[in-house]
Model the fold of this input.
Amino acid sequence: MIRVRFFTILRLLVKRADVILDRRGISVRDLLDDAQRAVPVPFLHKVLDDEGKMKRGTLILVNGRHVQHLDGLDTIIEDGDEVSLFPPGGGG
Amino acid sequence: MCMKVTDAGVLRVNLSKGTFVEESVGEDMYKMYLGGRGMAAKLLSDEIDPAIDALSPDNKLIFANGLLSGTSAPTGGRYMVITKSPLTGTIASSNSGGIFGAVMRRTGYLMIVIEGRSSKPVYISINDNTVEIKDAVHLWGLGTAAATDKILQEFGEKRASVSCIGPAGEKLSKIACIINDKHRAAGRSGVGAVMGSKNLKAIVVKGSNPIESEEKDQFSAYAKEKTKMLKENAVTGEGLPALGTKVLDSIINQSGLYPTRNFQFATFEDTEEVSGEALVAKGYLKSNKACFGCPIACGRYTVLPGGREGEGPEYESGWAFGADCGVNDLIAITEANFICNDLGLDTISTGTTIAAAMEMYEKGYIKKEDLQNGPEMKFGSSEAVVYYTRMTGMREGFGDLLAEGSYRLGEHFGHPELSMSVKKQELPAYDPRGVQGHGLSYATSNRGGCHVRGYLISPEILGSPEKLDPQELTGKPQWVKTFQDLTAVIDSAGLCLFSSFALGLQDYTDLINGATGFSMTAEEVLTIGERIWNLERDFNLKAGISPVTDSLPERFLEPIPDGPQKGAVSHVQQLLPEYYSLRGWNKDGTIPKGKLKQLGLENAKVVLVRKTG
Done:
């Protein structure tokens, strides 16, 4: 099982904290598509641009590590991993 | 009557003598320092001996607007309070929003310089150029909200604004802040104690002189363009308006940088209970609120069950009373924030000092009898957080020791190493072991532990302006230097640091040139920031602050025990030599005379000209 967690304005948008998907050995890109299919509210446009690339400032963390420092959207997710999605955010 | 941006004056009030004079600022001062933080740092450096006791009448307290404060430049509602800090012994420059700065600017004063010490409590009333020093004996002891209401009632004019201290500042707490417009804080470094040491309760201002830019049409076009950029940016146009700065709780916790239980851990198991999302889900957030001239509107207005209401909590405040104290009760956290605003306490230092006390108590260094009948100082106790916040603000019971800040508290009990501070100022809400550049920024901040002198979280975690690997060391000293210099520009321009999520150096240069008619290049503007940084460093060195203090608490040399960053340690000492070299400093962190000369800092002291007529 892979837990995809929604944070900040994504959570306000989809009105749920997470979705659990029965997958393994799947890329982040494909996992996002599957997560979108599991959630009735469109959310992918908040994290990906029209070409399907990550928007600047988007955070996609796999077990707390930003995918940009892994293999980007091609990072492979395994059973038991946790993927956290954040649209661009800031403060301090 | 319209005033040019570079036309503003300086009001100098001597509280020992009960006198005031008006002075003017030469155009060169704007070109060298812009205004605000930079210009006031120059005045303070010229006019006081940096080695003096910060709470003596010899210290000066400067309320300073930035160059663009009060203009139509987006986010131009910021002012700063500059003085020598009683907490750190360094120069202090604390930034605040609301409307006070913009209203003050319309009185015609860019800066108010307060000298000496009144023999009894007073407040300063400024209605355009009518200045009065008024009795405040009847206000002494009041919280900031009641004092503000009373002063506005006595002032009797609409559209006035009050900046004042609460009991914490009156009682010289080294973590006391100055509160304007009831809820906005010039929070850090104990600036409220300096105000209290002068027996100055408040300043009330009302101005009616709009500010006119030199290149009116060009400036107006720039202001509109930059406002549009802020509105269209995902951070400043969507994330911050929706969730405020508390958008960060989940980001920082999930990234494994969320200091928990006095920085012993880096993730908090109950973040979902206290996050920005929770503030919305629990129904406590009622609306967002903007400072003067701000299209972002990141301020929170909250109402708690039972009816208590006010602004906050911001991310840092919520974390300090929450995860850092192990508390998962959002009501108690918000309540502690409200108490700080009313008693005039810095939320970061207060929460972090309580967290340090909790660790000392749990380790047996602070005994039950030390608490003077207060509740047990245990991590997770919302009762303790609310109780000791109030006692700190009133300096009563055990709160008298807490009011000195975590370092002095630790020294008192023989364990200063448990103070999570740099230069005796408490660290904010990011574990530096997981973000190497941000750790260097903490260590080298000119005002001690601070996140807003070079917010490396932006590139290292948030990916703005580009995503850096937080554990990578290569290139980080250059990033830190650039961010520190740029931040000094933004502060001295009187703009909000959050604008930098959407705007860059060229955008600030456009606004500065449009407002003044100057034709500075972006590089020249960034050099102003470098000049200010060196000026502040020079002040600190003369104050006796050794470069040895460019370091982090020993805890950060031990591996993070939990979360995604498990095993990470700080490499600040490895980064320092390159940082000093990039700054053009000596290997020991001192500034060579040649560097000061290159930046124009070897010049004679600036003497302001007294206005006539």
Chain A has two helices and seven strands. The beta strands of chain A are 2-6, 18-21, 26-27, 59-62, 65-66, 76-77, 82-86. The first strand of chain A starts at residue 2 and ends at 6. Residues 23 and 70 of chain A are 19 Å apart (CA to CA).
